Amino acid sequence: MAYYIFTLVFFLFDYFILAMGLNIQYGITGILNFAYIGFVAIGAYVTGVAGLPANVPGQHYILGLGLPFPLNTLLGGLAAMALAVLVALITLRRLRTDYLAIVLISLSLVFYDFCNNYVSLFNGADGLYNVPAPYAKSLGLGVNSFIIFFACLTGVVALIMWFVMHRVLRAPLGRTLRAIRDDHVAAAALGKNTFRMQLKSMMIGSFFAGIGGGLLIQFGGSFNPTAWLPGETFVVFAVLIVGGAGNNVGMFVGALLVETLLIHLPAFLPDIPGHPGLIEYFDLALVGVVLMLMLWFRPQGIVPERLRRSASFGAPERLDEEAGRLDQTAAIAAGVGIEQADHDTGNGR
Amino acid sequence: MVAPALRCEGITKAFQGVHAVNGAEFAVPEGQITALIGPNGAGKTTVVNILSGAMKADHGQMFLGETETTGWPSYKIARHGLLRTFQLSRELGGLTVLENLLTAAPSQAGDSLVNVLLRPGLIRRQEREHAERALHLLEVYGLYRHRDTPARELSGGQKKLLEIARAVMGSPKVLLLDEPMAGVNPALIDVLGGYILGLKEDGVTVLMIEHNLNVVERICDYVIVLAEGRTLATGRLSELRQNTEVVKAYLGEVMDVSAAN
Amino acid sequence: MSLFWLSVGFGLVTSSVLAVAAIGLSLQFGITNYVNFAYGDFMALGAFFTYVLNNEVFHINIWIALAIAALAMGGFGVLINQWLLGPFARRFQSTHYVLIVTFGLSLVMLNVIYSIWGADVRFYSLAAGSAHHVGPMLLTTNQLIVMGISVALLAALHTTLKTTRLGKSMRAMSDNTSLAMTSGIDTRRITTITWFLSGALAGVAGSVLGISEGNLTPAAGELFLFVIFAAVIMGGIGSIYGAMAGAVFIGMSTEISAAYINPAYKLDIAFVVLILTLLIRPNGLIGRPGTTEA
After folding, report:
1. Which has the closest alpha carbon to A177: A210, A205, A208, A200?
2. 3-class DSSP string for B131-144
3. Do A185 and C96 touch (CB under 8 A)?
4. Is A105 on the interface with C (CB under 8 A)?
5. Which chain A residues contact residue B170 at CB under 8 A?
6. What ipTM was estimated for this complex?
């Protein structure tokens, strides 16, 4: 029972981290990163090969540094960040939204194929296994106790990462990224180096992806290509959109609803005889449907993005009468001003 | 002789074989309000796009003060003190009115991740200073009451005010206004004109594309006439009204209308 | 016979399949201005529909089954546009939303196919056919028929686009939708017809893919989608002739190089080509600009 609940708890915290990463890229900056799962994967793989000792018989892989937690995980995060820089340099400068989405998802598949076929990299289709469980030996944890321990450890990591993300989003950096999302032409006209900022967004988001991936491989002890078909990115998008793109609380809610309830809870249901995997297929189709329903009926998600009030900046407020006198202009503008037609704000095409 | 605030030479730009701009060249005097006028299709918006870095010219050079800015991207030109507004307001819709202005604040230490993580006190202080200045500007432009409103919810006229206030927040040395009076009701035109004159008092050089010759007459010191992608004439409006070429190309119809009134 | 010509033969077959698929995608993109990420699953559904007609429930001749399946997928395309994609595209200004929806549709379709047919490999029932010498190449009857279908469809499409009023309207809409609307073109009707064609072509492509590969799996369409992307981007997204050219280029280069390098990397070769193209010419070789606005 405890094993069951704490497995769910682990996935809740892990996907919370993953969602925060995609959120800064898509929810805040508007980059449709359909390759997100690829960054999670490299984080998992690099964490694995950083943690595994130099030469485990039966598996082929690069590195093998035998590093303990959290070093191996940090290395995974950094690897994901490095991959993000490479990808951003190739794609971000030049491509508009749908091209970018196509190229990203294709790059994700290429990377997938590579990991699947090139055995010496990360052990090919078999993937990495017997990845050491952090502190299991030193604390003498059995399988079940390890699950509880690691779920809590992931919770702590999630809390720290939430704190960092919260800082970033509240800072001018977060606001500039949202400005770029809303209208990158206007943002550039105001002096923002949009490519550099998008690059930062990709890097930060991918770091989170890498950490999340690193935690995944250490929780389960293994990681192979079946865990990350390019379509898996979609599950993270579902977390984002159901929860509410653009804000961290939404990420938690989304992780709770989509990842924990929709994806992992049914995994504990017994298989229907004669139809192996049917529940899983049905479940994934359901996630797709839920997402479409959500996008139609409540695109802002369960927890909509909240904007920051002026008072929070600490500048002295004006007395309303003083402001009111000068507001006549606003009244003229509001009441009599000619409405201008909406225009394309530069998002999408 | 003070160097012109903004200068361009031999600017050419063609779109799929059609020349929108064909050898435009002019100098915008420092600290004055200059109008860029001309018939539709004369290439005015294209020139402004090129001067602000939104587009690259095919040929030609441009200078911001002493610095050559040919080929620079728009953010770099903006950082060097040239800001512009758009004819169709480009408000940052998902941000509040205040946040729109804060985005324009020059010197943002808070855009750097390192600073966000390591120097929160500095950022907090800067934000407070910027917010104070922004709130004051909002008061001046009559948008204070809407400081926390998402910009997409403003009316058309309010968005125009926001567009200008936001540019002013960026402390520009040179401000390019693309048809600031377009689609604006008469009462607001007076107010906007007042603001633009105020900018001149603050030492900002203004170049505005404008079709409304009454406005040009009232507030502009200098006029540049563009026609068919090249500079037709420059000077004070009163002189230009005597210039037969200018009258033929542009002022002709307008002069008849105003004479009839 | 040499490895080279053998692979050229394969290349021609792959190019044929790819051309049909790529044009279906390009046509729809040209009219709607967003990419349908579920297109690969349309192909898979078409392939399985053919399977049901040919080898599971009924036992109709493969080529007839293919034709029926294509029509059915055309109808499916129209329905999807009518009830799902069209409404989303009209509602939101930013194309992000509809792209995510097509991605979601892909997930739903793939898993529905898995639910019904499972993950097992399936086969069509068709005569093996003999091999023929065509110049220096060796091709089976079925391969030749596949190529023939492809050429016929391409020719029909070319004629339609160039000569008929429908074709002209489609090209007008593809160039400038709002202008087309004000010129009195019934954009709704054209959109419906385009989705029918796109779905039908996907159905044909999925089935001939199954025929030329010799088997069907639910995920085959999705995997092939990436090769289609490579062809379409190379040719310039939205350009029909670009899609054809891209298809030939990608089809030939992947098969020929796969003969000499590890064939498992066939798809990836397409990608390296694609990435290189994009780095040099972000607009693709032909076709419309794909760069970010100024």
Report:
1. A200
2. HHHHHHHHHHCCCH
3. no
4. yes
5. 190-191
6. 0.90
On the question of a cis peptide bond just before residue B73, with omega within 30 degrees of 0, the verdict is no
Residues from chain A that touch B75, judged by Cβ atoms under 8 A, are 188-194
B161 and chain A in contact, CB less than 8 A? yes
Q: Mind spelling out the 3-state secondary structure of B7-69?
A: EEEEEEEEECCEEEEEEEEEEECCCCEEEEECCCCCCHHHHHHHHCCCCCCCEEEEEECCEEC
Binding partners of A (≥3 Cβ pairs within 8 A) = B, C
Give the tokens for residue B230. Answer: 């090249």
* C290 lies in some domain: no
Full strand arrangement of the beta sheet holding B67-68: B18-28, B6-15, B59-64, B67-68
DSSP letter at C139 equals E
Answer for the pair B31, B244: CB distance below 8 angstroms, yes or no: no
Has residue C34 been placed in a domain?
A: yes
Rounded to a whole number of angstroms, the distance from the CA of A348 to the nearest CA of chain B is: 15
The Cα–Cα gap between A305 and A181 comes to 14
CATH of domain B6-91+157-164+173-260: 3.40.50.300
User: Which residues in chain B are classed under CATH 3.40.50.300?
Assistant: 6-91+157-164+173-260
Give me the CATH number covering residue C172: 1.10.3470
User: Which domains are seen in chain A, by residue range?
Assistant: 2-297 (1.10.3470)
- Rounded to an integer, the average pLDDT of C241-248 is 88
**Alpha-carbon distance A116 to A275, whole Å?**
27
Q: Which residue has the tokens 């377009």?
A: B182
261 residues of chain B, pLDDT tens digit each? 578 889 999 899 988 888 888 888 999 999 999 999 988 877 889 999 999 999 999 999 999 988 999 999 999 999 999 999 998 899 999 999 999 999 999 888 889 999 999 999 999 999 999 999 999 999 988 899 999 999 999 998 899 999 999 999 999 999 999 999 887 888 888 888 999 999 999 999 999 998 888 888 889 999 999 888 888 888 888 888 888 888 777 765 554 444 444
Residue B5 contacts residue B177 (beta carbons within 8 Å): no
* Total domains present in chain C: 1
- Residues in contact with B236: Cβ distance below 8 Å, sequence separation at least 6, in sequence order: B221, B222, B223
B positions 182-221 inside 8 Å of A (CB): 183-185, 187-188, 191
Those of residues 296-325 in A touching chain C at CB distance below 8 A are 296, 299
Q: Looking at CA atoms only, how far is residue A68 from chain B in angstroms?
A: 26
Asked if A90 has any chain C CB less than 8 Å from its own CB, the reply is: yes
Chains touching B (at least 3 CB pairs under 8 A) are A, C
User: pTM for the full model?
Assistant: 0.88
What band does A25 get if pLDDT is binned at 50, 70 and 90? very high
What three-state secondary structure class fits A315?
coil
Chain A residues within 8 A of C92 when measuring between CB atoms:
299
The length of chain C, given as a count of residues: 294
Instruction: Tell me the per-residue pLDDT of C253-263, one tens digit each, with 9 for 90 and over.
Output: 888 888 887 77
Domain range for C131 is: 3-280
Whether C292 maps to a domain, the answer reads no
CB contact under 8 A, C95 and A345: no
Residues of chain A with Cβ-Cβ distance to B102 below 8 Å are: 172, 175, 313
Q: Do A292 and C103 touch (CB under 8 A)?
A: no
Most distant CA pair in chain A, distance: 80
Judged by CB atoms within 8 Å, which residues 272-291 of C form the interface with A?
274-275, 278-279, 282, 290-291
Task: Please tell me if residue C101 touches chain A, with a CB cutoff of 8 Å.
Answer: yes
Residue C227, domain member (yes or no): yes
